[in-house]
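for the record, two folds in this file. i put them one after another cuz i was lazy. first one right below, seq on top, structure tokens after. the second one comes after a little note so u can tell where it starts
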Amino acid sequence: MSKILIVGPAYPLRGGLATYNERLASEFNALGHQCEILSFSLQYPSILFPGKTQFSTDAAPDDLTILSEINSVNPLNWISVGLKISKAKYDIVIFRYWMSFMAPALGTIARLIKSNKHTQILAITDNIIPHERKFFDTPFTKYFLAACDGFLTMSHSVLGQLKQLNQHKPARYVAHPMYDMFGEAKSKQEAREILKLSTNQKYLLFFGFIRKYKGLHLLLNAFADERIKQLDCKLIVAGEFYEDAQPYLNQIQELGLGDKVILSNDFIPNGEVCNYFCAADVVIQTYLNATQSGVTQIAYYYDKPMIVTNVGGLAELVPDNKVGFIVEGEKIAIADAILRFYNENKEQQFIDNLKIEKQKFTWTYLCNELLQLTHD
């Protein structure tokens, strides 16, 4: 049995990182280890946070120890937290690294923990080169990476970026596990009734917070294709805008899509995620660039076919014409895939294949790979 600490967002903070960290900690505990989470007392100063709130409206996990102690902008805090964790002598500390803004805090804390000459420092690196780049990305990232003993990535593209900056330390690729914590699947009819949607309509789902790199503007352009309009399908956009919503609203109006797009633009609480996925025929991700995607792994859990653009980790996880379609990021190709999905009646074929493919994406496998890194 190992004494393990995960460093990253967790309740009462919200979002995919928090959900992932909590699920990972639960799996380590289920396997007989002792795992806790070290989260943030201040993750982002309000002026830097693009959403409405950083905090969850869901109930707290009742089976996890979560310490909310890191202040991301206070160096004195980094020192006190690092020294405290160093004295606790965890066997393994696993950092989540997703943006260079966090590198000074996390890199400093990691160095102080290592001063105990006992703890091994691992990192799950969601991103190495950020989606939206800043001048300090590379030096900050190198500062963090230098403090770690091994790395796990969830896409081959991030693994390649990691090796460019840090070639000599152990690193492994493991696909993002399935998100299986949002409740059991409902029938399509039941989910649609809950969301007050038609039970006979065709629905596509674009899910998650909205930023330019997610490519919603591409999808809206595809939806303006006359063939799509004649198909009589609707697009559900479920997620909070993390940038100015007005350009998208203008685009919807200019393209005449007012009756084709359903906007649900608040953060979707965990308890409601199931309804959106179960109500849809297909999940669509028209990203401009990507590493790995939690949205894909929710779709796997609910056996939902996918249409994704051929970027980063998305294409790695969606075998083309098996569980969905991989398309190039331009409106005609996206529209063609939507038409093909419906006109060729692909839904059931893809669902049958999803049930087989998703067996690869378990949390137990991820835990074991992380533990193995300590021996590499």
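(here's the note) second protein begins now
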Amino acid sequence: MDCLVIDLTHGGIKIAISLSKKDIYENIYCYDIYNTLDNINRNILDVFNIKVLNLKDLENIQNDLCVISPIHLPLTQEEIKQKINDHNISYEFINHHEAVALILDKWQHRCENIPKVEITGVKGKTSCVFMLKEILDEPLILSSLGAILSNTQKDMFLKRNISITPANIKETIDLAYKTANPICEIAQGKMEKTDNVNYKSAIFECSLGVCGISDVGLLTNIVEDYPIAKGNSKASIAKSQIFKCPIVVCEEETLNKYYPNENREKINTFSLENNNANITLSKIDFGLIKTSIIVEYHDLITTAGNKINGTIEIETFAPAYHHVSNVLGTLGVVLSLNIDKEKIKNGFKNYKGVKGRSSIKQEDESTIIEEINPGINTTAIKKSIDMIKNLNNYCVIIGGDYGVTCEEINEDKVADLLNNTDIDLILTGEVGLNIKEKMNKEAIFIEDYKNALNSKIKDKKNILFIYRSTYKELNKR
């Protein structure tokens, strides 16, 4: 059987090369559907005898074929078959997530004794990653902020500009391996090559589903079921891959709405409101810097195969209910992994938010709450505004950039929300300008977000800064 890897923009190169090393397929081909392949990567594929096909070349495929493509591919299986135009061959279709699971089979076996977590969802993924970072021992991390090797002394960024496509889980593991086995030191005889890993846990944030290579999978929520694959599929369908994990932690409302037929015997649910969930709120005392939460859990399934019940009191950074939901999801993961309760409590206490995402800082006499996210949407904006609406002396600054994620913001919904919300408001950036033009009441617009922030810091105002972007892009400005 031959293999055709479609889409070299979202990790297809890494997948194709990794599969060539496993010697599973007779021939491996690639189809660069978005025409993003540069000469360097084309030459690398040549080294591994991987042929890049043009659209017309697909008609020449004659062997049975495994087609590997991202779950958001705009082509359907039938459309792919039509392009190949040979109905006498048999087809197997798997997505990039499934291909990565196939590639990492030996890694899974080698790391069977360390806790492994995969996280997907519409909102809260990165926050949950960094909560887990404070609780699990010396984790290897893939997140939207980078690939990180963390230990008690420091965090080592293995790669900063890396996306959370499934292929980059393999990339992150490879980068960690290289730090444990530096070629120059092995060549000089200073150390032996080893298969040992230099981390004690693994946390992988992944877009549009997971690979199913972890002990516990976390689905944070599906607050908006946005279309993917040019409308041929939806986020909820892609993220249903979470149920490939041995144990799943999932928001109760998300499970009931989108996956009512899933087997609950391996699912631990959490909820802010529904007492039927395995993890529920008993008491909460909000604070901007520290929130105190008492959580009850019952019949919670663990990786040891037993069910546990109990209560735990947590203090952490969680100034609004959507942050608390992330806390509950993270708590579900570490309880499922049988982590000691004192270790859990200390980890949450050490969590201070994610710099450039959800965090709080002081500038002169102004307290600034930052909600910076490449996938910011109407729901997230409403929840953030609700967080400070009863506090005094607050200004809200909203704006952002386009093209930072596949999911675009609904400007009409945001404009309608702001029309019916009484706040001191400044709009900024491309997103802010478009929202302003759709509002039916006046709003201040300042093009540069820095000028908007400085104007309110000068007025000694506290600020809720909601910006649709990535923190690394803000740092470049």
